[in-house]
Amino acid sequence: MKKTLFLSAFVLASTTMMGQKITYPKAPHDATVDEYFGTKIADPYRPLENDRSAETTAWVEAENAVTNAYLSKIPFRGKLLKRLKEVANYERVRIPFEKHGKWYMYLNNGLQNQSVLYQMDKLGGEKRVFLDPNQLSTDGTVALQGISFSNNGKYLAYVISRSGSDWQEIYVKDVATGKDLTDHIEWAKFGGAVWYGDGFYYSAYDAPQKGKEFSSKNEVHKVYYHKIGTPQSEDQLFYQNPSRPLCFYHVSVNKDETVMFLYESGGGSGNNLFIRDLRRPNQQFTQLTDNMELQYTPVEIIGDKAYIFTNNGAPKNRLMVADVKNPAFNNWKEVLPEGESVLEDVTFIDGKIVATYAKDAASHAYLYTLDGKQLREIALPGVGNASFSGKIDSKECFYSFSSFTTPATIYKYDIAANKSSVYTAPKVKFDTRAFTTEQVFFQSKDGTRVPMFITYKKGLKRNGNNPVFLYGYGGFNVALHPTFSPMRIPFLENGGIYAQVTLRGGSEYGEEWHLAGTKMNKQNVFDDFISAAEYLIDNKYSSKERMAIVGGSNGGLLVGACMTQRPDLFKVCIPQVGVMDMLRYHKFTIGWNWAPDYGTSADSKEMFEYLRAYSPLHNLKPGTHYPATLVTTADHDDRVVPAHSFKFAATLQDCQGGNAPTLIRIDSKAGHGSGKPLSKQLEEQADVYSFILYNMGLKY
Question: Is the pLDDT of residue 17 over 70?
Fold first, then answer.
């Protein structure tokens, strides 16, 4: 690699769109050229990878000024934001759960930035605030990422993140008094507090170099043990594996503290699993698996039986049971075999098993005995997404159900009577009955049958003029289910269509569906998405002039690839926190963890050429008429570092041959999305939806 000094700080370029003249600031750049298998690739905006430099900071401020000026001139943005606040202002409740004789529930009264954890003496009793994350910052940018009660019931460890970063801090609360102890853990990542005895295990990295906290590569994940009442400096290093620096490690311990599991992941699409019988002094871990392409997740320990969820020998997943005293994999027994639908979750409740399956991306639930005998199907309220909660030794069973037109509602399920009843339902300020959802199937480029959910206001006419918000993800074995978001309501009320595509690369049809969208098959994902847009146009739902595509993270890559491959097909593109530089993604923070899905430019010449062929950054062509584009990212995104979006936006502004705006929105004190305060979410959604409608020539 060769580098030279900066050629310039700012050069200006202009365009005019919708009556607004835009002057773009030119990013700092140099003459960097990388060589891959004899092919030289220029990377002129390499300086933007230093997201804390004075030059990058100045460019960010200048770009935000341009974007804010543009958005502020959209005449209906304020009205749209007002409506978004109205529809989001309803009480949201999560499933209640019992711990050590007390009941707990997360609740948001409507417009709170973060949900609050309440405590009750009995189910349905008077609620009192137990932990309010909104009190941890003045602007809601400190988010609660997880909690863990000690097995003796004395303590609660709670995990927070600041400004959306993946870095975690752990604090400890005395449950009886509600007061915080002096314990404080920093630089934890990808884990939580796992209690054992009078302390807990946690996973962390060494403290990063100052100034590179959110961009430097994370290597050698370590597991520590923290004893209550001691400083972090005295924590014991429990496990590390320097020979595998690009792996994640964490442990779990059952509530009886008899069995410990060690998980190793990051080297494939799944994980390796190790077990340790804590009843036998000084016993070491026994390795149970040796293929990180397969998944192994312990879900319940009953005596000497360890129930494990896996896709080993079952691409659509199955439940197996192992003997803790004789745990080798060849001794595991099958409890729930692989079926026609994808087994997505199992929950042990009242001495039985509730299994949730996905059929065409929608939930179906069944009740089984512990030895796998099916008792019945549990009737769900409709086509949507269900998530069950309960305990093996408790008769209380709850599930949350939502769909595209139904906000999350909590149901109590009486197992003995086989009856569901509403425990709590949100009171919303809009008519959910005014909207409907249909599921259609279309053929992708290679003939594959792909599903898509389409939601719109009842009575909508298929005249080819309706604005569409087309959304997808398509990667990392992640399933997109029918779920509700109040943010869509104003768009739907305004005659818009929300379309969600079940792309290859996800888990909706099992591991084969996932693999069909990875590495040398990644183009399938983009073809699916492009075919979805063409289906909506061919069937008169919409037109090219009314088509917006949106996606985040891997979905941001999706939008970036599709808009560079088919810029003629879309009117508006919103790539959010996207992976845009496919040649260098693995060099930042935990980007190396995505190699099982993507492959890397260092793997082989063939892999390099395949990545280069669709990498959004490397397929922008000067003079092309690109759609109106609003790139979004955030200054604390240490999952997909903002350099991806920075370099893509700067190059896009250079290459734009048409009049459509190509803007970038860079949020402050925010990260990849997790834990983002509601106030920031509302502002961002107002910008996104108003940008879409405005550039379609529509009003709100």
Answer: no
636 Cα distance to chain centroid: 16
* Residue 221 appears among annotated catalytic residues: no
Q: Is 150 a catalytic residue?
A: no
Angle at 105 between CA 102 and CA 110, to 5 degrees: 155
Confidence (pLDDT) at 5: 30
Please give the model's pTM, rounded to 2 decimal places: 0.94
- The pLDDT tens digits for 556-566 are 999 999 999 99
Q: Rounded to the nearest 5°, which phi and psi values hold at 272?
A: -100, 155
pLDDT tens sequence across 365-412: 999 999 999 999 999 999 999 999 999 999 999 999 999 999 999 999
Kindly give the interhelix angle for 678-695 and 54-72, rounded to the nearest 10 degrees.
Answer: 60
Q: How far apart are CA 650 and CA 626, in angstroms?
A: 14
Beta-strand relationship, 168-174 and 180-188: antiparallel
Question: Of the candidates 589, 580, 639, 655, which has an alpha carbon nearest to the alpha carbon of residue 612?
Answer: 580
Confidence band, pLDDT 50/70/90 cuts, at residue 15: low
Of 553, 601, 615, 645, which one is the catalytic site residue?
553
42-55 CB burial, b ≥16 within 10 A, e <16? ebbbbbbbbbeeeb
- Is residue 83 packed enough to be buried (19+ CB in 10 Å), middle (13-18) or exposed (0-12)? buried
Cα separation, 648 vs 626, in Å, equals 13
Predicted local distance difference test score (pLDDT) of residue 311? 97
pLDDT in tens, 119-144: 999 999 999 999 999 999 999 999 99
DSSP label at 429? S
Task: Tell me phi and psi for residue 146, to 5 degrees.
Answer: 175, 160
Of 12-16, 149-153, 165-169, 429-433, which gets the smallest average pLDDT? 12-16
Q: Which residues are within 8 A (CB) of 366 and not within 5 positions of it... i.e. 6 or more apart? A: 354, 355, 357, 374, 375, 376, 377, 378
Residue 109 has what DSSP assignment?
A: -
Burial-class residue 126 by CB neighbours within 10 Å (0-12, 13-18, 19+): exposed
Helix axes 77-88, 678-695, angle to 10 degrees: 140
- Determine which one of 221, 514, 636, 672 is catalytic: 672
Helices 54-72, 643-655: inter-axial angle, 10-degree rounding: 60
Between 5 and 316, the more confident residue is 316
- Per the DSSP assignment, residues forming a β-bridge with 298 are 308
Any idea which residue has 């170099």 for tokens? Answer: 209
